[in-house]
Amino acid sequence: KGKICVNRLVDPEGGMNATQFALWRRLLAQPRFRLNEQEAMTLIYSVKDWLDPDDEVSDIYGAEDTAYRPLGYACRNGPMVTLEELLFVNGMTRELFYGDENRPDRRSCLSVYGGGAVNINTAPIPVLLALSPRMNESIAQELDDYRREPTNRSDLQSREWYQRIWPYDELIPKDLLTVKSSYFTLRILGTLRESRKHVHTVIHRTQESAEIVYWQE
Questions:
Q1: Can you list the alpha helix ranges (DSSP code H) found in the chain?
Q2: Helix (H, G, I), strand (E, B) or coil at 188
Q3: Contact present, 119 and 2 (Cβ < 8 Å)
Q4: Residue 185 pLDDT > 90, yes or no?
Q5: Cα–Cα dist 193/13, whole Å
Q6: Angle (CA) 114 120 125, round 5°
Q7: Closest CA to 103 of 40, 36, 34
Q8: CA-CA distance, 123 to 132, in Å (whole number)?
Q9: Kindly report the CA angle at 9 between 211 and 128, in degrees rounded to 5?
């Protein structure tokens, strides 16, 4: 999983996870997403309030039940089950979620599965840029080029491989990085004459087995 896990924005006590908050902030601050500071903070704190178990609005940007009741639903106050649930959260729009001609989609950067670490071998460029305040487009592109080179494949087994390119003494925290994924998304299109069927599924793989944790047709 080379994505940021939405559900890890809140720590086990229901507070804001500082490491994940920094990830979100660096992700949303990127010019490609065309968000100002207030829009980014509104989305981050609203997601936090959607996930945490209490009914107290976080900071000046959050949103609890009073924001959602006029829309006909309540704040979940628990982990998200699907990524599409973000569309119900204050501050998220379909244009932000799916992308449009002016900005890329947000789905490719986020997931509701996995832990707090990001697979540096598969993370898209925007997620690489969110890993450190020192990261920039040039370094992120060098990292992407390096991991795509077949002769470097054996290096990718270590989460420290990025240090071959990284020019700073201040490293990315080890607990933020992994080189393994246990959740995999499959999008399948089947056709038969004029009939077409789309399937979106998520598979959780362990050493012992693999199971489907999400299925949508």
A1: 18-28, 37-51, 65-68, 94-98, 125-130, 137-148
A2: strand
A3: yes
A4: no
A5: 53
A6: 105
A7: 34
A8: 13
A9: 80
Whole-number Å distance between alpha carbons of 103 and 97:
10
Please report, as a single letter, which amino acid is at residue 196: R
Choose the weakest-confidence range: 101-110, 145-154, 185-194. Answer: 185-194
Backbone angles phi, psi at 130, to 5 degrees: -85, -10
Average pLDDT, the chain: 91
**Does the CA dihedral 65-115-30-202 come out positive or negative?**
negative
174 or 106: which leads in pLDDT: 174
Q: Tens of pLDDT along 115-156?
A: 889 999 999 999 999 999 999 999 999 999 999 999 999 999
Interval 170-188 mean pLDDT: 86
166 backbone dihedrals φ, ψ, rounded to 5°: -60, 120
Max Cα-Cα span within the chain:
59
d(CA 45, CA 30): 18
Q: Is 159 exposed, middle or buried (0-12, 13-18, 19+ CB in 10 A)?
A: buried
Tell me how far CA of residue 201 lies from CA of 77, 106, 137, 185, 186, in angstroms. Answer: 25, 18, 32, 6, 5
pLDDT 10s digits, 36-94: 999 999 999 999 999 999 999 999 999 999 999 999 999 999 999 999 999 999 999 99
Residue 9 CA to residue 49 CA, distance in Å, equals: 10
